[in-house]
Amino acid sequence: MNQNKMKIEIWSDIMCPFCYIGKRHFEAALAQFDHKDRVEVEWKSFQLDPTIPEEVKIRTTMAEYIANRKGMNINDVNVMFENVTEMAKNAGLDFDFETQLLANSIKAHRIIQFAKEKGLGDQAEEVFFKAHFTDGKDLADEATLLDLGQLIGLSADDVNQALQQDEFLKYAKDDIAEASDLGVDSVPFFVFNRKYAVKGAQPVHHFLDALKQSYADFNKDSGFKTLESNDAASCDIDGKCD
C-alpha cells in the first residue's frame, strides 16, 4: 500500500450486476473528486455462489437459475431483470440477461488476483464484467479466459499461471475470508481507508460524499463506520439482489 494515498478496497463478484453498476457510479464520483490522484483502489474477490460447479455440464438460463435459487417464478425474475437492465442503462451499461451464461466465478477471480500483481486489477474487473453481462461469454471456458486475458493485458502464460498455481486461488480465498471477518454478506462493498464502509451500488453523490468524508479523515484514527443509504442495491450470498 502506498502510504501517501488513501486506500479504497472493493469486494465484488463478476456475477453480481450491482457490482458492475456500482463500479460505474464509483468511477463517476472519483472523476469529480478533487484528490483522486491521492486514491488507491484495490479490488477484492467475493463469491455470491461458490456452489456452482466449475465445469457446468447442463446449462440453465440466468432466469432459471435465479428462479430456482430464490424460489421465484420466471415472470417475476424477468421483471427484475428488466429493472436491473434499466438501472444499468442509466449508468451507461448494456446488460443482456438472455445471453448470460451461468458459471462459477472462481477462475475469473484467480485471473483478477494475478492481474492485480501487475497493476491491472481494474482492467480485469472491467473485462470480466463486460464479458459476462454484455457479451454472454462463457467464463468457465479456459479458451475464452485466454482471450479475455489478452484484453486485460495478460499473456497466455500469465493466464495459465493464474489458473494453475495455488497461490492465486489462495489470494481469492483470503479475500473472501477477510470479507467474512468484516461481516460482509452482500456486494459491492466499499471500504474507505479502513474507517468507513459503503454498501451497494449507491448513487454517484453518495460515493462522492464518502470520498470527501473519508479523505478529510485521512491519517486520523477513527472507528469503522457504515455509511448507509436507503437507495442502495446489492446482491447477497443468499441469492437476494435488490
From TrEMBL:
Keyword set for this entry? Isomerase
The record's GO molecular-function terms, alphabetically, read: isomerase activity; oxidoreductase activity
Residues in DSBA-like thioredoxin domain copies: 8-212
Q: Which Gene3D superfamilies match?
A: Glutaredoxin (3.40.30.10)
What InterPro entries would the database entry show?
A: DSBA-like_thioredoxin_dom, Thioredoxin-like_sf
* Superkingdom of this protein's organism: Bacteria
Q: State if Iron-sulfur is listed as a keyword.
A: no
Official protein name in the record: Protein disulfide-isomerase
Q: Which organism is it from?
A: Soonwooa buanensis
Q: What is the lineage of its organism?
A: Bacteria, Pseudomonadati, Bacteroidota, Flavobacteriia, Flavobacteriales
